[in-house]
Amino acid sequence: MRHARPLPAVILSFLVVVACTSASPGWTYMPAPSATPIPSASGEASAAPSGSANPNLVQISALGLKFEQSSVTAPANTPFQVVFENKDPGTPHNISLRLGDANGSELFKGAVFNGVETRTYDVPALDAGSYAFVCDVHPTMIGTVTAK
User: Fold this and answer.
1) How many Å apart are CA 42 and CA 144, to the nearest integer?
2) How many CB atoms lie within 10 A of CB 75?
3) CA geometry: angle 112, 107, 127, nearest 5 deg
4) Do residues 145 and 58 make contact, with C-beta atoms less than 8 angstroms apart?
5) Whole-angstrom Cα distance, residue 139 to residue 36?
6) Is the separation of the CB atoms in 69 and 44 below 8 Å?
7) Half-sphere exposure of 138 toward its Cβ, with a 13 Å CA cutoff?
8) pLDDT tens digits for 73-102?
9) Dist. CA 145–CA 45, nearest whole Å
């Protein structure tokens, strides 16, 4: 009879386990949807992204040792900001703006920093035209800024 008392506890435990594994979950965690729109996959950033409070904002990101945008547009003859997102964990990147192509004179040089992090650079006004943006650490990372 010594073993008779634990038997109801064993049966109850068994029933609880069976009930929990066969029932659909009553509660799961899911974060609220983001209010930020999903960025366009066109590869071009704009000086005035939709919904942006700052029309002089250019967004550029680096992932996989390359810029995700091959070309961006910035306002001509007015200072603007580059929001640069380094998505490569532990990898240093920056952005330098060069006159003409990647070998041109340096017009602006942003600080080098490791990812994953985002930095905002204040860039002086550029005349209308095309400029290169380059990562000084990885000079094969090149894109084009068109000031309009």
Assistant:
1) 14
2) 18
3) 135
4) yes
5) 32
6) yes
7) 18
8) 999 999 999 999 999 999 999 999 999 999
9) 10
Q: Which residue has the higher pLDDT, 6 or 48?
A: 6
CA-wise closest residue to 80 among 100, 102, 52: 52
Cβ atoms 57, 47 nearer than 8 A: yes
* Tokens (6 digits) for 66: 């390359």
**If you classify domain 44-147 with CATH, what class do you get?**
mainly beta
Residue 42: both structure tokens together: 């066109």
> Are 123 and 108 contacting, i.e. CB atoms less than 8 angstroms apart?
yes
Long-range own/partner contacts, residues 119-124 (CB < 8 A, 24 or more apart): 119/83, 119/84, 119/86, 120/81, 120/82, 120/83, 120/84, 121/81, 121/82, 121/84, 121/95, 122/79, 122/81, 123/74, 123/79, 123/80, 123/81, 123/82, 123/97, 124/79
Cα–Cα distance measured from residue 81 to residue 10, given in angstroms and rounded to the nearest whole number: 67
pTM score above 0.90: no
Q: Where are the domains of the chain?
A: 44-147
